[in-house]
Design goal:
The protein has a four-stranded parallel β-sheet. A two-stranded parallel sheet has the order 1-2. Helices cover about 50% and strands about 15% of the residues. It has about 200 residues and is α/β, with parallel strands linked by helices. It is globular, with a radius of gyration of 18 Å. The longest helix has 23 residues.
């Protein structure tokens, strides 16, 4: 997602915390130089680098992400509490997953614009969410690393039983189900035929 310089400056931000993949994003080239020139401090979190080191997006990557931000904001104890809470919730999720014999095939989509076939795959936090739930991340099976627009045939071949989207995407549209069903390939998947869509809440 591209960052708007004027938008950031208009809210008086003096610190921007940005993951490394967003820092390197093509449309953000030069943006951070402008912000630094305006006196804004930029803290780059090596999220993608950490995931690449682990070979996947693990709970450890997320914990380090939180730790780095908490330290930067001089609230390390809050970071510790949040990490402990995350660990307990992950443990509970694993227990629930192990107790179920079902392993639904889940595809995470990012249709920020109507018709977009952008999906997530390896090295993304959505991978961790899906796997903790005991589901199969079919984005990984497509060979996508990060997030990418794919052709409709790839979506059909992935055969997701559930399509997952961020709450922010869901709230963008008046009729989100119709918008998702209109994405090329979706209506031909098991998820599309059953209208089986789920929303992942985002941290406000």
């Amino acid at each position: 997602m591209a960052i708007n310089v004027e938008g950031v400056l208009s809210i008086g931000a003096d610190l921007i915390i940005v993951p490394d993949w967003a820092f390197r994003y093509e449309k953000n080239k030069g943006v951070f130089d402008q912000l630094q020139g305006a006196g804004v401090t930029i803290l780059v979190i090596p999220e993608l680098k950490m995931a690449e080191r682990e070979g996947r997006y693990t709970l450890g990557v997320l914990e380090e992400f939180v730790r780095l931000i908490a330290d930067a904001l001089a609230v390390p104890e809050k970071g510790h509490r949040l990490i402990s809470s995350m660990q307990e919730e992950a443990k509970e999720a694993r227990k629930l997953a192990e107790a179920s014999s079902k392993k639904p095939r889940v595809l995470f989509m990012l249709p920020y614009s109507p018709g977009s076939t952008r999906i997530t795959g390896a090295l993304k936090p959505e991978q961790l969410v899906i796997e903790l739930a005991g589901a199969v991340d079919v984005g990984l099976e497509t060979g996508v690393v990060g997030e990418k627009e794919v052709n409709p045939e790839a979506i059909i071949k992935a055969a997701p039983e559930v399509i997952l989207v961020h709450d922010r995407v869901w709230q963008t549209y008046k009729d989100p189900i119709d918008v998702i069903l209109a994405i090329p390939g979706v209506a031909e998947t098991p998820a599309g035929k059953a209208r089986r869509f789920m929303v992942l809440p985002e941290i406000p």
